[in-house]
Structures
1.
Amino acid sequence: MFIDFPIDFYGVRAEAQLRGSVIIDLLDNDYYLRLVTRPALLAEIVSLEKKKYVVIDEVQKIPELLNEVHKLIEEKKIFFLMTGSSARKLKRNHANMLGGRASLIHFFPLSFSEIHDFNLEKYLTFGGLPRIYQSNDPETELDSYLTTYIEQEIKLEANLRNLPPFHRFLKSAALTNTELLNFANIASDSGVPATTVKEYYSILEDSLIGTVLEPWRESKKRKAIQTGKFYFFDPGISNYIIGTKVMDRNSNLWGKNFEQFIHMELKTYISYRQKRKEICFWRTVNKQEVDFIVGDEIAIEVKATKKISGQHFSGLRALKDENIIKNYYLVSEDPINRIAEDFINVIHWKDFLKKLWADEIL
C-alpha cells in the first residue's frame, strides 16, 4: 500500500508501533545511508525483526527499495505500508510501482467532517493541516512547514539548484490560486521562462502541493475553454506564501479561499469514499462559469455571500440548458436553504457538507 501525503503522517507511525511493526524512517540518516547504498539490507532487517508488517516512511527517497519490497511481498508474504510526500523521484527513476500488488491511498488535510466545532475563518486563514490547525501558534508552524518542505524536500526531490526563481514563481502561483493557468503571465511576474513555469507547476503537482482542475468539455451548445485551473492543496499554505495573516471577510481572497475549501472537501470525499469520479469546472468563451462538475451527476457554484440574488444563478442556468447534469447546487453562506423555480438547490455550505459526508449528494 502506498500513501501520499504532503506532511509526515505521524498517525501511521503511532499505529504501526501499537501493532509491533518494523518502522523504517528514511529521514533517519542511519537508515537512509545504509539502504541507499545497499537496498538488499531491507530483507535482512525484516528477517531479523520477524514481523509481518513493515512501515517505510518517505519511500520516494530510495526508489530502488521497491524492487526489494516486491521480492519480500512475493517470497515472504510481508505486508508493507509505504508513505511518501512526492512521486517525482519515483517517476523520474522509473521505479517499480508494484502494479497489482499495492493500493494507492491519498491523504488530505483535515476535512469539515473531521473537525469538531469547525471554524470557517480559521480554516480559510490557516488551513487544515492537523499540526497547524490544532496549534496555538499556527503562523510559526506554517513557517516551519514551508521552510522545511520547500527549501529542503522540494529542492532535493526536484533537483532545484537555484531556489530564488522558484520562490518568485511560488508567490505568483499562490496569488493566482483557483484561477485559470496562464504560463505567460506567471513567467512575466516571476522572471522565469514559460517553459520553466510549466516545469515548476509539475513539481508542485508531483510534490502534492497542488493540483490542476481540468475543464469540462461535454457542452454542446456553448464553446468551452480548454485551459485548466490550479488549486493549492491547502489555503493556509497559499496564504502564507503571499503573506496573508488575517482574512478580510469582504475581500476577494475570502471568496477564492472559500471556493478552494469546497474543492478540497469534494476531492477528499471522493477519494476517501473511493467514488472514482472526476471533478471538473466549466467556463465558456463568453465567461459563463460553474465552479465544479462531478461526473454527470452534480454541478456546484460556490458564492461567498450571505445573500443569494438572481445574478448568482447565471452560470448554473446556462449549464442546465445543456441538459446533461442531473442536479444543481448553489453553495454559499446564505442561511436560507431553498429550491429555486428552475430546480437549483440553494444551500448553506454547512448543510451541503453535512449532506455530502452523509452520502446524500453523491
2.
Amino acid sequence: MVPAASLVAFLLFASAASAASIDSPKRKSGLWDVEVSTPQAGGTPAIHMQQCVDQKSDDLMTQDAPGMEKMSCSKNETRREGDEIIHESVCKMDGSTARSRAVITGSLDSAYRVDIKTTYDPPFQGMREGSTAMKAKWLSPCKPAQKPGDVSLPSMPKMPGIDMEEMMRRAKER
C-alpha cells in the first residue's frame, strides 16, 4: 500500500507536469480545490485536497519532483488541439516503459480537468495500465497561514498539511 503522502506527491507531480505546455500556461495563483480519482484503485475513495499555488510552486513541481532523476524520457511533447492541451510522454523507470497521455480541458484560471492514461511494459509494480482523473477549481487567494506549495487534505483531517517544498528538499537529500 502506498503511503498517502507519497500518493499525494505523485498525483500533484503528475497533474503539474501534465499542465505544462508549449506556452507554459500556469494555474492562477491562489487556493485550488483538487479531487483526484484512480478507478483501478478498487474502491479507494477519491483524494480531495486543497493546494496553495503560485508560479514558483508549479515550476518546482514540474522540474524538481522526487523520482524525476530516476526517469529517462524519450518523448515529452505537449500540443494544443482545439480547446484541449495534450501531453504525451514515453519514459523508462525502474525497468518499465511508461507511455502516458494527458488531456487537459477547461481553464487554468478557474476550473480544469486532467485525464491521464498510462500503460506500462513490462508491468510497473504489478500494473499494466492506469488512469487518473483530476478535477480542480480555483477557490480564493491562499489563506494567510499558507505558503505556495502547501497542501491540505480536508478528507483526511488527522493528516497534517503537507509542505511540498520541504518534502522535495528532503527527498533530494536522500
3.
Amino acid sequence: MGALPDNAGGTILVVEDDEACRKMLQRLLRSHGWTVCGAVNGKDAVSLYTAVRPDVVLTDINMPGGDGNSLIAELQRTDPGVCILAMTGLSRQDLRVDQALRRGARSVLSKPFDGAALEQAIRSALHPAR
C-alpha cells in the first residue's frame, strides 16, 4: 500500500472493541505517518474525540458499551463536520449499516478489508472532491 496522502500531522481515532483488530489498525495507520489513538467503546471515544479532535474517526458499528451508531450520532451533535468512517462484520443488508450512513458516516467498510480499501476510504472521506 502506498503512503496515505496529506497526512502530515493528521490524527485518526480508531474505535474497536476487539483489541487485536484495534492494535493492527493502529499499527497500519501509524506506519503511514498518522498520529493514532484508540478507544474500546463509544463512551471512551467521545472523551478522546473531545480531547484530541482527530481528523478522522474510524469506528466499528457493533460494539458493547456504546455501539458505533450511537457514537456517530453523538459525534455529529458535538461536531457536525466530523469525518467518520464506519466498519463492520455485519451484512451490508443489516439495518445498522444503513443507519450508520444516515447518521453521518461517510462510508462503511466491510470486514475483513485490506489496507488499500482503508486508504481509499480515508482519502475519499478527507478529500471528497478529488
